[in-house]
Write a structure and sequence with these properties.
Chain A: GO terms for molecular function: ATP binding; ATP hydrolysis activity. The complex is a heterodimer of chains A (312) and B (381). By secondary structure, chain A is of the alpha/beta class. Chain A has helices spanning 42-49, 71-76, 93-102, 108-121, 137-149, 167-182, 194-200, 218-223, 243-247, 273-282, 297-305, and strands at residues 2-13, 16-27, 31-35, 57-62, 65-66, 78-81, 155-159, 186-190, 203-208, 211-216, 228-235, 252-258, 261-267, 287-293. The model of chain A has no long low-confidence stretch (mean pLDDT 87). Chain B has 381 residues and is mainly alpha-helical. Classes of the chains: A alpha/beta (312), B mainly alpha (381).
Chain lengths: 312, 381
């Protein structure tokens, strides 16, 4: 059964088309990853699913019901973990979760038990009487999640839930996502961290310019670019690097820089390694190492969209 | 409705958890009462301290002094001529009456003279003494003229006058103007506090947008309409308590007569609370941030409160400003209350009440229209 179905959905803001005739389906029990650079239409899609925006065209169905017509039903079955922390600083952790869970009609002992359960799930039970202003960034993120899951939604949308937190908290949150999925929740997950999406998502959609340009498991996505390879060239400094010039070398599909690594995605059918090395040496760039890697999700993204996930 | 009440309950709990909010919303309105008490309160029964210098030592002079001593609001102190200046300058006495030698004879002659009134406090003080004293002296002069120089006839008529069988009894009338002024002053201040309270409580909407909790709320079964209604309910509840507390304390603790029924005053003020909420929503709907809302609040609330006569009577302002005040809801609220104080029945004030309703409805409609036009990406994404 599909928990979420998006059929031919379009969203315009004046003349700008943020989401362009998008269709996708998320089955029960999936962790579905949304990948897209800023402005790709990812947040607009998520806001339409969450009922914060109305689409101009198309239908969004949650658990088989049109969410525009059955808004309350859709929202009752949905938990939203927004990218920005949406918690009350002047309410304790317990009160925050209780307030949001109460909006779903829960009251009394049932409400209390679910709030305690949610706080235990995110590891904040011992801090239930504390105010968020005494929390670390990671703890606030966890509280942000607790507020969305206490009412036991069938579909949870997590929009960049690990932004700006320490690795320990990030691991905690990723494990929580997996645990929630094991408990039967379907999850839509967006992140700028490709390795997170690769680690936890069972299926991924890549969005660009308001359209889904690729969709499938990570293996299926990687298979889309089997005719390319990744060259990771470690250099002393990339200051004099002319990316455009490298892109013009025959066979080069995409180029990106990550600290001291120049990542070049190149056609496997073209032997252009000599030309690439020659170009770097001629431009005074000292090469310290070179390795060829199988394409990862980031390469897929870069190849398909032509831009890095973190591009503005 | 259940989820609306859940938000109302939560907003009230979080708001009144802060002591400064308890002070602002519940105790600030009472400041108006204290200001009114300071402005119009105090002992209304003023006692005049009058010094008397008797250089005449005649019977008529003694009787005149006795007459003065018999006045309810006058306290007589006998002095020597040399003490007059010191007592007046030091402020111990409000005025001094000097009966010079020959006073009695001049009265008997029908041409009162040889009497001096000394004061540095002006007509406010001397007027009262003069009016009583001159009337008394005129009466005796008239008797004297009627006796036409016959000492025996004068004595007879004078004694009859002193022991007249008719009696004048005096009753102090309650000064309703004082209570009316105090009520207007207190309500004027309450109006300002209600407008500020409504703006602050409506600003919670902007705060929630800035903190992004508003968008999370909208992803729950709550929609924007319900959220707005919850905010209006919180506003109305707080202002109902403000009105009830202020009127009750005015009436029961400070015994300030409202000069109208408690319930009539409460209904008018609750009507005004709808106007205050409507206006605050208009201010919020036109503001993108809390700082912008605060600036608008300062720009609108304080000047209109001053113009509409909340702090001083509109009559003291130039005619142009008085005309402008007629376009302000605060003016119509005060006008309705004044008319109730003047004894008009509630049913006679349908025009006033209609105008107040119209103000509230207009503000709500503007706010709803503006809110519905605010659905931009900036506000929602």
């Amino acid at each position: 059964m599909n928990v979420l179905e998006i059929k031919n959905v379009t969203k315009k803001f004046a003349d700008f088309i943020a989401v362009d005739n998008m269709s996708l389906a998320v089955a029960e029990g999936e962790i579905f990853g949304f990948l897209g650079a800023n402005g790709a239409g990812k947040s607009t899609t998520i806001n339409m699913i969450a009922g914060l925006l109305r689409c101009n065209d198309g239908i969004i169905s949650i658990l088989g019901k049109n969410s525009a017509k059955h808004s309350r039903f859709a929202k009752m079955n949905l938990g939203m973990v927004p990218q920005d922390l949406a918690i009350y600083e002047d309410m304790t952790a317990y009160e925050n979760v209780k307030f949001f869970a109460g909006l779903y009609g829960l009251r009394g002992a049932e409400l209390h038990d679910l709030v305690v359960e949610a706080l235990e799930f995110v590891g904040l039970q011992d801090k239930h009487k504390s105010y968020p202003n005494s929390f670390s960034g990671g703890m606030k993120r966890r509280l942000n999640i607790a507020c969305a899951i206490a009412h036991r939604p069938k579909l949870i949308i997590m929009d960049e839930p690990t932004v700006g937190i320490d690795p320990q908290s990030r691991n905690y949150i990723l494990n929580s996502v997996k645990k929630l999925n094991e408990m039967g929740c379907t999850i839509i997950y967006t992140s700028h961290y490709m390795e997170e999406v690769e680690e936890i998502c069972s299926r991924i959609a890549i969005i660009d310019h308001g359209k889904i340009i690729a969709e499938g498991t990570k293996e299926q996505l990687k298979s889309l670019i089997t005719n390319t390879k990744d060259l990771w060239i470690e250099v002393k400094s990339s200051e004099n690097l002319n990316i455009q010039a490298i892109k013009e070398i025959p066979g080069v599909e995409a180029v990106s820089i990550e600290e001291y690594f120049i990542k070049i995605n190149s056609d496997t059918g073209v032997n252009n390694l000599n030309k690439i090395i020659e170009h770097l040496i001629n431009n005074g760039i000292e090469i310290r190492g070179l390795q060829e890697k199988a394409p990862n999700l980031e390469t897929v993204f870069l190849t398909l969209t032509g831009r890095n996930l973190r591009d503005q | 409705m259940r989820d609306i009440l859940w938000i109302v309950q939560n907003t009230l709990r979080v708001t009144f958890r802060k002591k400064k909010n308890i002070l602002l919303y519940l105790f600030m309105p009472l400041i108006g009462i204290f200001i009114a008490l300071m402005a119009y309160g105090g002992d209304q029964k003023m006692i005049l301290h009058v010094g008397v210098v008797n250089q005449d030592k005649a019977e008529i002079t003694a009787d005149t002094i006795q007459f003065l001593a018999g006045l309810e609001n006058v306290k007589i102190t006998e002095l020597e001529a040399g003490q007059v200046q010191e007592e007046i300058v030091s402020g111990k006495l409000d005025s001094v009456i000097t009966f010079e030698k020959g006073y009695s004879d001049s009265v008997l002659a029908g041409r009162p003279d040889h009497i001096q009134l000394t004061s540095i406090k002006g007509a406010q003080v001397t007027g009262f003494v003069k009016s009583y004293l001159y009337q008394y002296i005129d009466n005796i002069s008239t008797i004297s003229r009627a006796a036409d120089g016959n000492q025996q006839t004068f004595q007879q008529m004078y004694q009859d006058y002193q022991q007249s069988s008719f009696q004048l009894s005096t009753h102090s009338l309650a000064d309703t103007s004082r209570n009316k002024n105090m009520t207007t002053q207190t309500i004027g201040f309450l109006i300002m506090i209600m407008l500020i309270s409504a703006s602050n409580l409506s600003e919670i909407i902007l705060l929630e947008k800035e903190k992004r909790t508003y968008f999370r709320l909208l992803s729950t079964p709550i929609n924007a309409r319900k959220y707005l209604l919850a905010n209006v309910l919180v506003n109305m509840l707080v202002m109902t308590v403000q009105v009830a507390v202020t009127l009750t304390i005015m009436k029961s603790v400070f015994h300030i007569g409202l000069n109208m029924s408690y319930w009539e005053a409460a209904v008018v003020m609750l009507l005004f609370s709808m106007i205050a909420v409507g206006l605050s929503l208009v201010l919020i709907s036109f503001s993108k941030s809390r700082s912008a809302a605060n600036a608008l609040q300062n720009l609108i609330i304080t000047p209109t409160v001053m113009l509409s006569g909340c702090f001083w009577p509109v009559e003291v302002m130039p005619t142009t400003l008085q005309k402008i005040a007629n376009f302000l809801p605060q003016r119509w609220t005060l006008d309705t209350l004044t008319k109730l104080q003047e004894g008009h029945a509630f049913s006679e004030l349908s025009l006033n009440l209609l105008i107040l309703f119209a103000f509230a409805a207009a503000f709500f409609l503007i706010a709803v229209y503006k809110f519905s036009r605010n659905k931009t990406t900036e506000n929602f994404v």
